[in-house]
Records
---
Amino acid sequence: MKFDTRTLVLMAIAIVINVVVGQLAVWVKLPLYIDAVGTVLVAILAGPLAGAVTGVLTNLIWGLVSDPVAAAFFPVSLVVGLVAGLMARLGWFRTLGKTAVSGVVVGVISTIVAVPIIVYMFGGVTGAGTDFATAYFVAVGQELIKSVAVANLATNLIDKILTCAIAWIIASRMPGRFTASFPFYQKANA
């Protein structure tokens, strides 16, 4: 695995964006995460492997710097980067409508990965905004795993559609002279 300088710089900027925006969402207890815009942007421009590495590094660095819970979710970020990159490769980031479909796919798959982490590592409580919905479902008699799954899926669908849309808008507004250096992006959007 070897990335060129431009990809490495993009990945570093994306990691900072992910951590700063994600930490703000945690502090204000938003029911969304918005912590993968940079990961998806890298995946769109540089491909699934670069997206996956960006996601993993985001969570590990974030976990070391300010929020240890974030480190446990590195598998989720890895999947977000991989799936977004694969969707981009298949041409699913060419229009806003297709981007929304990509967000749904990323949201469903990331939920499948996240639910066991939330339930078995954290007992259903991670400090995120989704904890309120999980607590409600448990309070009305639902099983913990079902409560976490429903709360997380609802949040993840909205979050990943929004995340993918923001990343797509950023990528589509970048100057052609910049995106031309990312052959993956050019191939995926041809």
---
Amino acid sequence: MTSSYDPESEGAQMSFDGRMSYGDYLALDAILSAQRPLSRAHDEMLFIIQHQTSELWMRLMLHELDAARQQIAADRLTAAFKLLARIARIMEQLNAAWDVLRTMTPSDYTAFRAALGQSSGFQSWQYRLIEFAAGNRNPAMLKPHAHRPEIVARLEAELARPSLYDEALRAAHRAGLPVPEAVLRRDLRQPWQADDGVMEMWRQVYLHPADHWSFYDLAEKLVDFEDYFRRWRFNHVTTVERIIGLKRGTGGTGGVPYLRRMLEVELFPELWRLRTAL
């Protein structure tokens, strides 16, 4: 193939005056002009793009989480499995992004850190929505968003809605599995508390997978989700410690010590603890 090859000779569209192009469809002018560094430091562009692309992946994750919960609520578990598998692949993308950010050294970050002011990933409302949707619910975490009433409204709506785990347990109850009534009537705004009755229900599913295959598969999809989520948190901790050590975060958190505490949060504790009980 020579450099004189003309794709138009095979029918490729080459003129887009008044027609929708690739850039038009993807709104690339808006996306590619959204990187506005506040310093002259070379690595600030990396920092901005890593966080912007992570927010785009989180937007897709929320889209898939919403659909997965709708499918589970409608007892269409097979359809939900596809969505949950996709969420795991999205988490792989989010985890891979830390590898790129870790190429930034402490000296690189120090060159522009002051320009960030009080902004911090701690304030990501999409990340907060993901945590709320997964079941890690804490109404106190609405406070960083109080200056944006429309965002608080979205977070409040999520707190009023059954989490992914709540929907899984409600589906199990509808299928005749022994989910405790108190769990089904719980205050949805509060964080999940491990329940012995729920663990016993899952234990029976794992002891007799052939009899409860759909819920056995659902349980493993939930474990996959939390497995990737834990990896994301761990990568976050190690990346932050590698770059800023034990300094406080720009948003005022304790930095690495705060992030380490987040590693202890369990989304679906019964699904992990039953491994010991089997």
---
Amino acid sequence: MSHESLENLKTTEIKAFVPAKKFAKSKQFYSDLGFTQASDVGGIAYFYYGNCSFLLQDFYEPVHSENFMMHLLVEDAAAWHRQVSASGITEKYAVEVSELAEQPWGMLDFVVTDPSGVLWRIGQSI
């Protein structure tokens, strides 16, 4: 297929398959984080927040999970940081939430690590 012919093809969405060590615990974690679970069929749970979504899979490989990263671009990283910090997930799931920091690549962001070791970078462009 030539590059020119791809220009006429439309896309509608791209989603990552996020690994989960303990599927039920991870589903609850993402619900507590504020995502909505729309479905759960055959070891794949569909989560969304606004127009952003991902698929949580009942699959765990330590090296894969601990090197898996997601990036969520938001309009107000400080508000997200306040909400995530107040949610109680750090205590309930023994996960880490970093401080909000201005990054040299032009983002204001913070990091959340999920119960399976997946790193989420939540930030806004500055």
---
Amino acid sequence: MIVVGVGVGPNMLTQEAIEVISNAPVIYGSKRSIELAEKFIKCEPHIIKDYKNLHLLPDDAVILSTGDPMFSGLGKFATEKDRVVTGVSSIQAACARFHVDMSTLAMITAHGRDPAPAKDALIREVGLDKNIFMLPADNFGVKEVAALLRGMRIDARICIYEDIGYSYERSVCGTVANPPENKSDVYCIMIVR
């Protein structure tokens, strides 16, 4: 299989991704990933219903992953014989938006999983004076992050970037004491020290 990152939002496909998608004999993905790539899809796309069974798909199947497949994406299901095509990630977009050097970041994801390891990683990385990029979980978002940082007596800027690439995207910053509020469920958090 070929796992292709379709980018974090509209118009963020790489040329390599466009070529793979345009030549795909069969495509699978989430509704959102198919929508992001639809103008380049020439075959009938299929919605993925069970991500744990991707290994059962044909060898020539193209699997669409939002953002970059290797950060909280479907690249984790690829084997050594599979190909992974990178996509524009929310990390890249947020660093550009907030002028943060990617080399200063610790990257953490709580998206779609138990947030306990993300919380532990956040505590550890903030303790090392790192800037943080985080994909939140429903129960571990900007409010919980700000409360944790307040408890640690950390002073930082907290930024959120929502619906990246769409005409209604929103980026806003606040402080640990007065964090921004997300209006969308599709967002990322940056903690800038």
